[in-house]
């Protein structure tokens, strides 16, 4: 391990099941690499169905007492977890940048955001209210109560390796559920470090379990095991569909946070400098590897050239390099597959007539670096219009009228995030309503907050994470019809 941590106990190369740190039954491990250098960062247990089954059994046993605990006592443990995460923020950020590649500033911000979700749901734990319903008959009381769904399985992606854990686990735990998580194989260490701190916070054994290894086998056990009552997945739409189908056999509830293809519309009445700043915040965060990145930038014809020039000048200031360098603002992509996908989309666009004002090729900062890119003359017949780029590429599309921009924006199976910039109040309301997305940024390029419902429609997902809605995803409504003796 090449990390210099204040608390070395945070860096774990074993899975966490029933409060124990374990190797795979087979003893097999697989390497985890630092995407900035290609160096091996450590090893990860290569577990499968048997270990997953045991983790689910541990979660089922722990559920009995965890769900009976007073919500304020569950809240106190979550609060301690939140505080420990903030106390260890720098170490957690170092681990995240080493395994995922994002700049340290972004890793610190993600750790802070993760703690905010835990803090938010520690409070929500105490507000899982039921209701009484006016009786229709004499000597009768009608009421509902909220109860935890039970054992929850969670599968998370590599692009936000801490926040996706916090955003799923904290509402589940707050609701009284127990959890078995499979993190992405590219980024297991952030999840395992959070488990170290959860154990330190007093989370009882078996309440939180982390299994690492063979995604297909682990996923098959999670989706088939009848003890699992809910699957919460964040990842690509194609995998989400597979998991949904498998969950149907045992009628599991699902939350799906899937892919995106966000339009970013710049109208002729927008403040262009302001819009450029928000493109940078939306498009180039995490090297463009976020589900809510501006994926299609649509600019009204009369301001197209001016906007393209301003954006290119701003992109020229981006500092590409290893995330461990404090002045880096753009890190590497996660792996070779990502580089090939991004470069393939750019080459396809260029071959069909698009032009690169800046970038347009991999960068010599290292094997997994792609140059921040602005493409003009991009059209719907190019693959980049229909695919989630997941890289630092800003394709510019030209439109004439408002209606055309909305039709172009909605011409996708995805429906996660959308953005637009205009200073016309009537247009702001019209466009906010017309865009077919779960989340809309009106004169804003950023959306995420622990206080708001994060999620998509169409093939971007089911359910919401965060806000007052996040905990409802892990609660069942029980209706009680109470007859009173005459
Ligand atoms: N909507 C959101 O909140 C959100 C957030 C982050 C990422 N994403 C999406 O995730 C994708 C990028 O992340 P990714 O490359 O890790 O996605 P991915 O779907 O390839 O993998 C996500 C997780 O699923 C696991 N997985 C893959 N195949 C599986 C299977 N058959 N059974 C069980 N688990 C399986 C992976 O190991 C990983 O842990 C993008 O599409 C992005 O838009 C969405
Ligand atoms: O990639 C998806 C994340 O949910 C993005 S955000 O940090 O929530 O905006």
Task: Report the mean per-residue pLDDT as an integer.
Answer: 97
Rg estimate, integer Å: 23 Å
How would you sum up the major sheet? Answer: 7 strands, mixed
| Beta-strand segment tally | 20
Q: What is the general shape?
A: globular
H/I helix tally:
14
Q: Which structural category do the helix and sheet elements fall into? A: alpha/beta
**First and last CA, distance:** 72 Å
Fraction of helical residues: 25-40%
Bound molecules: nicotinamide-adenine-dinucleotide, ligand LB4VBGO6
Strand order of the largest sheet: 14-15-16-13-12-17-18
Low-confidence stretches: none
Oligomer state equals single chain
Percentage beta strand: 15-25%
List keywords for this structure.
486 residues, binds the ligand O=C[C@H](O)CS(=O)(=O)O, six-stranded mixed sheet, alpha/beta, 37% helix, seven-stranded mixed sheet, binds nicotinamide-adenine-dinucleotide
């Amino acid at each position: 391990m090449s990390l210099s941590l204040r608390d070395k106990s945070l860096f774990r190369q074993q899975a966490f099941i029933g409060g124990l740190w374990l190797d795979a039954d087979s003893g097999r491990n697989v390497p985890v690499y630092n995407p900035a250098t290609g160096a091996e960062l450590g090893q990860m247990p290569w577990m499968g169905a048997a270990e997953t089954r045991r983790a689910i059994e541990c979660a089922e046993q722990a559920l009995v007492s965890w769900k009976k605990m007073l919500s304020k006592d569950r809240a106190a443990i979550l609060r301690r977890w939140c505080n420990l995460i903030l106390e260890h923020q720098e170490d957690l950020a170092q681990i995240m940048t080493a395994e995922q590649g994002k700049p340290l500033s972004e890793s610190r911000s993600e750790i802070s955001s993760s703690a905010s979700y835990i803090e938010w749901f520690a409070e929500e734990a105490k507000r899982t209210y039921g209701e009484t319903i006016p009786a229709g008959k004499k000597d009768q009381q009608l009421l509902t109560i909220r109860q935890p769904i039970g054992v929850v399985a969670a599968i998370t992606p590599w692009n936000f390796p801490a926040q996706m854990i916090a955003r799923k686990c904290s509402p589940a735990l707050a609701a009284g559920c127990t959890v078995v998580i499979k993190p992405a194989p590219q980024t297991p260490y952030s999840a395992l470090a959070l488990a170290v701190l959860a154990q330190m916070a007093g989370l009882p054994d078996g309440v939180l379990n982390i299994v690492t290894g063979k995604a297909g086998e682990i996923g098959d056990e999670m989706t088939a095991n009848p003890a699992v009552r809910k699957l919460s997945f964040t990842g690509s739409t194609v995998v989400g569909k597979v998991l949904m189908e498998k969950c149907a056999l045992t009628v599991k509830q699902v939350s799906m946070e899937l892919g995106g293809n966000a339009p970013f519309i710049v109208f002729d009445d927008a403040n262009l400098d302001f819009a450029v700043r928000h493109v940078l915040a939306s498009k180039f965060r995490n090297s463009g590897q976020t589900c809510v990145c501006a994926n299609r930038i649509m600019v009204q014809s009369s301001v197209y050239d001016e906007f393209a020039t301003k954006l290119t000048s701003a992109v020229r200031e981006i500092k590409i390099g290893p995330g461990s360098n404090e002045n880096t603002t753009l890190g590497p992509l996660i792996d070779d597959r990502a580089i090939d996908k991004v470069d393939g989309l750019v080459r396809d666009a260029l071959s069909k007539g698009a032009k690169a004002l800046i970038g347009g090729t991999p960068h010599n900062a290292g094997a997994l670096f792609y140059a921040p890119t602005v493409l003009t003359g991009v059209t719907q017949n190019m693959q980049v219009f229909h695919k989630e780029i997941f890289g630092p590429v800003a394709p510019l599309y030209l439109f004439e009228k408002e209606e055309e921009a909305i039709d172009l924006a909605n011409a996708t199976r995805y429906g996660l995030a959308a953005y637009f910039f205009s200073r016309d109040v009537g247009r702001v309301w019209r466009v906010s309503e017309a865009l077919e997305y779960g989340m809309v940024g009106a004169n804003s390029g950023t959306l995420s907050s622990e206080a708001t419902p994060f999620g998509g429609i169409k093939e971007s997902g089911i359910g919401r994470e965060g806000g007052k809605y996040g905990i409802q995803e892990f609660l069942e409504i029980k209706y009680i019809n109470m007859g009173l003796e005459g």
